[in-house]
Amino acid sequence: MNHQPLRAACMQPDAAMEAVARAHQTRLTKPPGSLGRLEDAAVQLAALQRTARPRAGRVWISVFAADHGVADEGVSAFPQVVTGEMVRNFVAGGAAISVLARELGARLEVVNLGLVNDPGELDGVRRAVIAAASDNFCNGPAMTPAQLQAALAAGADSVAVALADGSDLFIGGEMGIANTTTATALACALLGLPPERLAGAGTGLDAAGIRHKASVVARALQRHAGAGDALEQLRCLGGFEIAALAGAFIAAAQAGLPVLVDGYITTVAALAAVRINPGVRPWLLFGHRSRERGHDAVLAALQAEPLLDLGMRLGEASGAAGAVPLLRLACALHATMATFEQAGVSDATGARG
Ligand SMILES: O=C(O)c1ccc[n+]([C@@H]2O[C@H](COP(=O)([O-])O)[C@@H](O)[C@H]2O)c1
Ligand SMILES: Cc1cc2nc[nH]c2cc1C
């Protein structure tokens, strides 16, 4: 199978614009650096969007939903039917991400990649069904090569629509009962870490449940120890929505669309994307630090500092959505604060503006 497009060059951030934006920040009426990561975010967006006026006004959110064969191992606090039920809830307007997207004025797309409890045709849900669920990776690869390709392409398709809609920012979210087990298996394989280090409560496992989850991941890692590179690890130990997210992040970086990453599962997908194509990394901003146990290690591997730490662990793109107002404020500060010169305020050298 030809995976060449996945490894095609990503856009390069505009280094000259980055320098202009960084210099502009030093002229604004504040001690240099005093707006902390809000400054960094505005400068990063300026470099990525190739503009002196970075924006986060037009936000696109794609939530990728899929079921996981590994749910059969009893690794979630919730039954598998919830994935399909939540898809219905997303488009009915009652889920957390439905509320957040509405409040932000963001476009919300829900993508059905394969659900055991399939709600069928629904307004607002794009059907890109691959199978009812990925296979249980304790028994064999989670996906066939063709299924992996279909999932990666479904993510890239969402980015194409987001670009056509004139989006400033792409947010990928996920919904999939048992996908913290999948994300843990994939992250352990990508990072060479033991399952006990990353396995966490997910939707609400107790300590015994977490130990069982780690043992399931250990079995899967043993079975797929021969999976050579990140793409093969994604095929053997991933899931449809995680592969779609990886495909979306690669496509966004190749097209020059900044990405705001959500929680644990999406960060593992981002790690897979970066391992497949390192040019993806500059295009990623990180919305929040999830309460899920493994998130810290995956963020550290990406040298990522998220904007928020609110103890959230929902998924659905909710943590990234929560960070959008901060990005909007960062852009407004960058564009409209007065400079020392404009305001007639003395700078650190004593020079009066
Ligand atoms: O995004 C996160 O950090 C996060 C952490 C824990 C759970 N989740 C969500 O919970 C579901 C997976 O949890 P589980 O326990 O079924 O593996 C899935 O739908 C995720 O969106 C999400
Ligand atoms: C109710 C529910 C909502 C979710 N949203 C994302 N993952 C979820 C898991 C559950 C169980």
From TrEMBL:
Keywords: Cobalamin biosynthesis, Glycosyltransferase, Transferase
The reaction(s) this protein catalyses: 5,6-dimethylbenzimidazole + nicotinate beta-D-ribonucleotide = alpha-ribazole 5'-phosphate + nicotinate + H(+)
The keyword Glycosyltransferase appears for this protein: yes
Active site: residue positions: E316
Gene3D superfamilies to which the protein is assigned, alphabetical: 1.10.1610.10, 3.40.50.10210
Listed InterPro entries: Nict_dMeBzImd_PRibTrfase, Nict_dMeBzImd_PRibTrfase_bact, Nict_dMeBzImd_PRibTrfase_N, Nict_dMeBzImd_PRibTrfase_sf
Leading EC class: transferase
Cross-referenced SUPFAM superfamilies: Nicotinate mononucleotide:5,6-dimethylbenzimidazole phosphoribosyltransferase (CobT) (SSF52733)
EC number, as in UniProt: 2.4.2.21
GO molecular function: nicotinate-nucleotide-dimethylbenzimidazole phosphoribosyltransferase activity
Gene Ontology biological process terms, A to Z: cobalamin biosynthetic process
Transmembrane segments: none
Pathway: Nucleoside biosynthesis; alpha-ribazole biosynthesis; alpha-ribazole from 5,6-dimethylbenzimidazole: step 1/2
Biological function: Catalyzes the synthesis of alpha-ribazole-5'-phosphate from nicotinate mononucleotide (NAMN) and 5,6-dimethylbenzimidazole (DMB).
Stated family: Belongs to the CobT family.
Protein name (record): Nicotinate-nucleotide--dimethylbenzimidazole phosphoribosyltransferase
Source organism (scientific name): Lysobacter arseniciresistens ZS79
Gene of this entry: cobT
